[in-house]
Amino acid sequence: MSDLDGNGGACALTIDDIEIIDNGEPRVHDLRLAKVLGFKQPRDIRKLIERHLKTLERLGGVCATVAQTSAKGGRPAQEYWLTKRQAAFLTTSRKPNWRSRSRSR
Length: 105
Known about the structure:
Blueprint: E1 18-21, E2 25-29, H1 30-37, H2 45-51, H3 53-58, E3 63-66, E4 78-82, H4 84-93
Antiparallel strand pairs: 1-2, 2-4, 3-4
């Protein structure tokens, strides 16, 4: 699946983006949500998650795991699997980065 739509923008989430984790609750990976939201650096969503961690915990259990490093090595990073409510909260809590889709005249 492509991360971009035909116009160069981020695609919407699809059923393929949903994983069933823990107690059977559907969740979306933090970096996938960041791409859909148009983050220039998808990992920046993790700063937003950490800033709002207490609120996210109230919206459901926070599922954090340590990402597997590549064969080349590298520093392990914490990644998050978000519930629908947590993803919706993050979507509305960040500063909008509106890009004009209108053509210049």
